[in-house]
Structures are given as structure tokens and as C-alpha cells.
Amino acid sequence: MRAVEILAVLVVLVLCAVAIRRFRRSPDLGTEAERATFDTLHTASLAAPPLRDGLTPEGAQRAIRHLRTLLGTPAVALADGSRLLAWDGEGGHHQHQALRHAAGAIASGRTSVLDAAQIDGDEACGVLDCPLRSAVVAPLTSGDTVVGALIAYGGQASAALVRATGEVAMWVSTQIELAELDRSRTRAIEAEVRALRAQISPHFVYNSLAAIASFVRTDPERARELLLEFADFTRYAFRRGGEFTTLADELRNIERYLVLEQARFGDRLRVRLRVAPEVLPVAVPYLSVQPLVENAVRHGLQAKEGGGLITLGAADSGAEALIWVEDDGVGADPALIEKILAGQARGTESESVGLGNVDARLRQVFGDRFGLVVETAEGAGTKVSFRVPKYAPGVHAGPPAP
Amino acid sequence: MSAWIAVLVVCAATLGVGALGLRLSRTTSDFYVASRMVSPRWNASAIGGEYISGASFLGVAGLIFATGSDMLWYSIGYTAGYVVLLALVAAPLRRSGAYTLPDFAEIRLRSAAVRRTTAVLVVGIGWLYLLPQFVGAGLALRTATGAPGWVGTAIAVLVVVANVTAGGMRSVTFVQAFQYWLKLTAIALPIVLLLIVWHHDGAPSPAAVAGEAWVSPLSGDGDDHPLYRTYSLLLALLFGTMGLPHVLVRLYTNPDGQAARRTVLTVIALLGTFYLFPPLYAALGRVYAGDLLNSADSNDAMMLLLPGRMLGEPWGDLAAALLTAGAFAAFLSTSSGLTVSVAGVLSQDLLRGRWRASVSGFRVGAGLAVLVPATLSLLGVRTGLADTVTLAFALAASTFCPLLVLGIWWRGLTRTGALAGLITGGLLASVAVALTVSGAVEGGWPAALLGQPAAWTMPVAFAVMVGVSLATPRFRTPGVGTIMVRLHAPESLDLNRGDS
């Protein structure tokens, strides 16, 4: 009984859906002229998507049918400076000459009209009733450069056809410019990614070398070890290929970093780790945790008497991992941190490079939900934390560090 | 009384460890120790701890006790599924970087529709697997203490929800690893006492008490078409293990594909050891507790009642308390693991708006994950524990097995093919499950085909997936070659895996 009821409900639902579609399909279609406008706009909208990749042979092939519908001529061709991109319509025996037809308009950048003799050129047209007795050639432009030409072949070139061809060419040019815009936007994003590559702070390089130098006379063996650590650290920081590493690798590099810092601070710098081993294989952008530790060392301890404690933690949280760095130092003004994360503070300190850069990279890779969270107040220490999804499309840890 | 104490201790320990879970992570100042990944051995124990559910703790012994030697396949199948997992899935799945099955579907097929379908199936399998856990918790407590059945279910539900929403013990590998050894101890210690008593009684043979039919295979004691049922069961168990959400997320904890393989290999040894014991209980039950036969509830409870009949005070009571504790630990750990997996998938893929992929969304997901099976079990859906678990396996074998096996080993799989196969296999198996659980079909071939559906639903799902994929070659994933390199090439090789 119940199955029958459910079936009945389903049938009614389907009928409703069909009825609604029917009603929406048959609105008042308007006058003849309005319908013509709709048709033209519709054809134009069909031609637009293939052209959004720019003037490519594939896009041109797919768009040209619609362009011929717009112009209503026997044949239409699209060419760029070096080749015929697409041809649609009758008179295929003129196809190989299309590039020559386009050359004039491409060179001059102005619409030109060719007569039958100019279409035939050196070789006479063998077809008696060839429909292509004239051609209107309109240049396609992107910005200030001419990138190709639209050729409309017809029986007799009329002023209307010249105007229509010019307008369609203008419309195609707009689409090509939009494609160009798309490409430059992609390039801008890529450049931003490159600019956001992990950075190590110049202060750290300088301070480390100074600390190593101080050991060269008194404890050459230690100085040598520190130099090797420094070499390993820079190799990790400057490595190319792969944006991501495992949390385990990042931790190992933080160890190198802390060894170098401890050469400067000695016992004043204490570190505690609280790491859930489950999250060690998680992929993180490399040098995403180290700047936070560096920030904790610099702003948490340096300004404070008697040194301090840095806690570095990682915990499992369902499909995400939670990573945090905490110090018991002097803290900071929350308003300042807010500005740094918003990218507004061109801080005098390198702090802005570290936090802002990590925050931007995390958001870019994982989305805006995954930025840094900073909890701090003057004199109350600082805790910086962030979440990383265990799986994100396209995010894979590179090969382990040597 | 001692059973109450055992249950309370297990619950308190579970909650306590869950609350303090973080402290069990490595707190140290030694980077070398802190950045060492979980070793395959620990990981394998953790998988074992989460995998051995209450259903297999009590249910397998109950089934063998009631039906006879055919049911030994349960013991074998629950373990042997990991052989298939090891050979076909473990390392490629780890290398893919997927954390859950929907992740894998997205990596391999780049399709949101397949991802969502997979998510729905994960939730379905999770619910089906959780149902017998909650039923079993009620049963165990009723048997041990005489409390009404809903009390045990309610306790289990509350502990699991509290535990999972408060942060979850399941994240802590070492706790789950400990659970395995707890369960092994709980099942192994009492049997030593029981075997001593049995030996003292002159070692009576179960065959002599139970009769030939119980001992000889395919005797069809109680069920029609034993041969079909056996093969179908084996297919479900062998190919369903790879689709269990709470097992797969543990592969992610391994550093690389090789470690994943080593982990699964160790799991086989650990589970093999554990599943030696339920048949022993079943055989002894046949000798000493033959009067408990012929009701699904008392079959599953046999193991808890056996020590009381064989041993005097106080040993019988203590052994029963230990078994109850083990069973309850099994219910809790498996349910927690499943709930976390299902909640993750719910909040990640199926919830909308502000619940999507947020902490509060995860809590809502955990509530939903528990609510449905808990309601069903309180409403009185009663089937044998191991039977219901097998249906979850059958559903997994008819959906995720084709997706994983074809996705990993055949570049021709297309997203339409995968979708068609998942939906076909999922619908067929779910209908079979629904009809079986509701008890609509009785006896004969229909009951056999619906009660053990894997033997026909799985081949159909495979055939649909392959057929539709061959018919729609233009929906192949672009760059499938690179994806295959990622899945199959060892991590140490410097190859193009599609990273920029």
C-alpha cells in the first residue's frame, strides 16, 4: 500500500514539473522585429563562448557557423595574419586564396571590399555560377593591433553588407579582447603565486652568520656544525619544484632553524613540542610554520627579560589538521596584527613579511577559511594557529627533503 | 555487579582518554621524536582496534554456535578482506593523497557528482555498520546485568556522541592500538580458563553433542542454498573491507605507500590471531550451552553466558565481566571511528550553508551519523549482529570495490561509468538490505539472494561500470596517465606526478 502511495506522489510531482516547464516555454513572443532581435542576440551568444579562448583554430571553427548566420552571406572566413582559421559556406574552391584576401585589410587595418577579379587573382575561377562575386574584409583588432580578418563573401557587395561585416568584426574583436583580458588575469594570478613564494627573512640570515662568526675562534667545531645546519636550512628554503612538503619535513627544518637561534639565545630559548603523529603526513605549503616560529622567537622572547617558552603543536581534527605556535612573550596589539594580516601595514619590522606572507599563501592554496588565526594582547603572549585540510585538490607534498 | 563495573570502567576510560586525547600526543622537546611518523605496527594495531567491532566480538561466535562450520568463513572473511585490500588498494590509495573515499573519487575522476554519490554511500554504509553496534551494546548489557536493552544502546550512543564531539579519541592512534590489545586480552584470557575446565571434563567433542550437521560443511543447517550463501558471503567480506570508511582513513596516517602495505600486512596477522578465538567459544558453547540455541539474541549473547555455566564463583563472574568489557570496548571504539568518518563526510560534502566543513558542522554531522542508526536500533530492528554487518560489507563490495579497483587499475574508467556503476550497485544492494532487515522475504531463493546479495550485485555493478565507461570514452579523466603515475609509482622515483 505504502509503495503505491509513494509511486502516486512521484507521478504527480513529475507531472507538475512537466507542466511548469510547458508554461514557462510559451510566453508572448513579441512582434516580428523583436523576434528578429532576439534571434540575432541568441546567435551572437552562441558564437561568444568558442571565441573566449582567443583567435584559435578550434574556437574559430566552432564560432564561424554562427557568424555566417549573423551575416547571412554564402560564405564566411576567419583568418589571422599567417593562416586561414576557419571557412564556412559555399565556394570552397576559393578557400586557399582567403589568406591573400585578408592580407590587405590586416596590413591597412581598414575594411576593404574586393571584386570578383581581386578574389580570383592570378587563377581564374573555374566555376561558372560561382556565388562568390565579391568580398568584404574587415580587420579584427585586439587593443591597437590587428590580429586577423573576417571575410564575408557574397554576390554583390552592398553598403549594408559592408556595415554588417564591420559590426560583426567589431563584436568578434571585443570577444578576442575579453580572452586577452582573461589571459592577463591568469598571468597576474600566477605572478602573485610566484611573488608569494616562501621567503626567509634577511634578519635571520644576518643574525645566524653573526652568531656563527662569534664561535669561529672560541669553538670552531660548533661553528662548523652550525654552518652545516645553516647550509641545510638554506637548501630547504631555496629548493625549487613542489610548493608543498609534509609537516614532518617542515618540523625537521624548524629544528635546524632553532639550533641556529639557540646559538644566539642559549638557554633563554626553550621549546616544547606537542605533536600528534597522525598529522605528520599532512601536506603544508613549505616554510609555512617556520615563519610563525621565527615570529614567536623575535617578538615573543627578544624583548623579554629571562627568555621564554615556545610551544609548537599539531593536532588531528577530523578531515583537518590544526597547527599552532604559542609563545609567552610580550604579545602585540591586536589592531596591529589585524592590519598586518589585511596587508595594510607596511611594517617596519620583518614581522609583516612572515605572518602576512604565510596568511596569504594559506588562503590562496586552501581558500579563505584557512587563514591564520592570531590570539594576542599586550603582555599576554601570542598564539598563532591555522588549519590545513588533509586533502585538498592539487595539493601534494613533494618528495622528502634530502 | 562486576559486569556493571566493567562497563562503567570501559565507558569512563573511553571518555577520559577522549578528553585527555591531546596529552597522549607526543609532548617533548625532541624534534627527532616528534617528527617520527606512526610506525606500521602501531598503525596496524589501531586499525585492528577500530575494526574489531562488537558484532565480530560476540556475533561471530554466536553464528558458528548456532549454524555450524559454514560460519567459520566469517572468521576467515573478516581477515581475508585485508589480503585483497593489501594487493589491490592499500599503496595506491595512500599515494593518491586521498583522506576519504570521496577524496579519491575526486582525484581519480574530477567529478563533483561522483564525489557526492560516494559521500552518500559512505554515510549509508556507516549507518548500516553502526546499527548492529548499538543493538549489540544493548544486548551485551542486558545479558550481563539484566538491564533493559535500550539502556546499553543509550549508554553507547551517549558515550560515542560525547567522545566524538568533544574532539574524538579516534584521532589518537595509540588509544585505538591499545583497544586492540584490550580486546585480544578480553577474549583470550577467559578461554584459557574455559579450556582448562573442558579438558578436566574429559574433553567432550562438540560434534558428539551437536551432531554431524553442525560439523560438516554446507549441511544447510537452518538456511537454504548454503553453497550460494557461502560464496556470496565470501565475496562480500573479501571485497567489502576496502570500502569501510573508518579503515581507509587510517591508511592516510602512513608516511607512504610502502608503509601502508606493511601496515595492512600486519593487520592480517593481528586479526588472524583474534579470530582464532570466537570459534573456540562457539564449540564450547555447543558442548555446555546447547539450550541457548535458536534465537538470534541468545545466540549472540552465548559468549557472555558461557563462563557462568562452566566456571564457579568467582571466576565465572570475572570472566563474564572481562568479556562484557571487551565487547563494550569493541562497540565503543568501532562506533567512534565510524561516527567520525561519517560525520566528516557529512559536514564536508552533504551539509550546506554554514554547516559545511566547519567545526559546528562536524558536530551536527556526528549527531546525524549517530541519530539514524540509534533510532533504528531503539525502534527494535533486530537481526543477527554479524548478519547486519555482512550487509554493510555487501553494500561496500557492490559500490566502492568496483570504484576503487577499476579506478586504480583501469585507465578507461569514466565519470559516467563510475556514476552508473555506483548507483546501480548501491540501489540493488540497498534494496536487498532493506528487504532483508524488514523481514519481508522468507525462505527459498529470494531470501538467499537478498540476504547475501554480493554474489550478484557486485558483478552487476562491475559490468555496468565497465560497460558504461566503454560506451562513454569522451568522459575519461583528462591526464589520466599522470594520475596513474601518482597512484602506482613509488614516492622515491622522480617522476611527473602533475605537481607544478
Automatic annotation (TrEMBL), chain B:
CDD domains xrefs: SLC5sbd_u4
One GO term of the biological process aspect: plasma membrane acetate transport
Keywords, in A-Z order = Cell membrane, Membrane, Symport, Transmembrane, Transmembrane helix, Transport
Instruction: Write down the membrane topology.
Output: Multi-pass membrane protein
Please name the InterPro entries in this protein's record: Na/Glc_symporter_sf (IPR038377), Na/solute_symporter (IPR001734), Sodium:Solute_Symporter (IPR050277)
Cellular component terms per the entry's GO annotation? plasma membrane
Record keyword Transport present: yes
Tell me the PANTHER family matching this sequence. CATION_ACETATE SYMPORTER ACTP, SODIUM/PROLINE SYMPORTER-RELATED
Q: What is this protein called?
A: Cation acetate symporter
What is the species listed in this Swiss-Prot or TrEMBL entry?
Answer: Kineosporia babensis
* Lineage of source species: Bacteria, Bacillati, Actinomycetota, Actinomycetes, Kineosporiales
